Structures are given as C-alpha cells and as structure tokens.
C-alpha cells in the first residue's frame, strides 16, 4: 500500500486515485498515457493549491515555531529506501545522541 504525505493528501482527488488504481489493468500504451495525465492533474492541483493566499496553506502546515527536526527526518525516512534512508537514519541517530548528551550536561551532578 502506498503511503501518502500531507502534500499528496492536499492535491489528490478521487479522479487521480482511480486513474492510478486502474493503471495496471491497461495495456502499456494506455499506462503511459494515463500516467502522464495523472501527473498532469497532480501538477495542476499543486499549482492551484499554491496560488491561494498564504492563510489557506497555514491550516495544513505544521506550526513553524515548534517544528521538530527529528520528526521531520522520521517522516522523510518513511518514504525513502536504500542509501538515502540509511543516511537519514544515521542523521536521526546522531541527533538523538546529541540530545541525550545535552540532557546529561543539563542534569545536576550529585
């Protein structure tokens, strides 16, 4: 099953999802045509989404002030594979170790 991110959810329409679901049942030429058309619809929806005033986008956005880099990296790791996933996971582990080190430094010594 394909995992969707927030942008996918914001630009997706039933029409595009139906086209994608039907694709494996079409001949090769039909798959090419439907694939390009589905991507065109997604691009069109993306352009329309970002043409709206900034206020409309804020209802879907994470609060910028409280953004957690580890949470963002974890979300990115879920959609990656291979070397990119490995690099992101190494970065997550490094950042987590740094946070633990900072916590240990802040603890009063007994």
3D architecture notes:
Helix content is 71%, strand content 0%. It has 2 domains: 1-61; 66-110. Helix 2 (14-22) runs antiparallel to helix 3 and helix 5 runs antiparallel to helix 6. It has helices at 6-11, 14-22, 28-50, 54-58, 69-78, 82-106. It is an all-alpha fold and 110 residues long.
Q: What can be said about this structure in brief?
A:
Helix 2 runs antiparallel to helix 3 (28-50) and helix 5 packs antiparallel against helix 6.
Notable features of this structure?
110 residues; mainly alpha; 2 domains; 71% helix
Q: Which secondary-structure class do the elements indicate?
A: mainly alpha
Low-pLDDT stretches: none
The number of domains: 2
Distance between the termini: 52 Å
Largest sheet: none
Mean pLDDT figure:
81
Order of helices and strands: HHHHHH
State Rg: 20 Å
The helix content, as a percent range, equals over 70%
Give the secondary structure arrangement, pairings included:
Layout (H helix, E strand, L loop, with lengths): L5 H6 L2 H9 L5 H23 L3 H5 L10 H10 L3 H25 L4
Helix pairs in contact: 2-3, 5-6
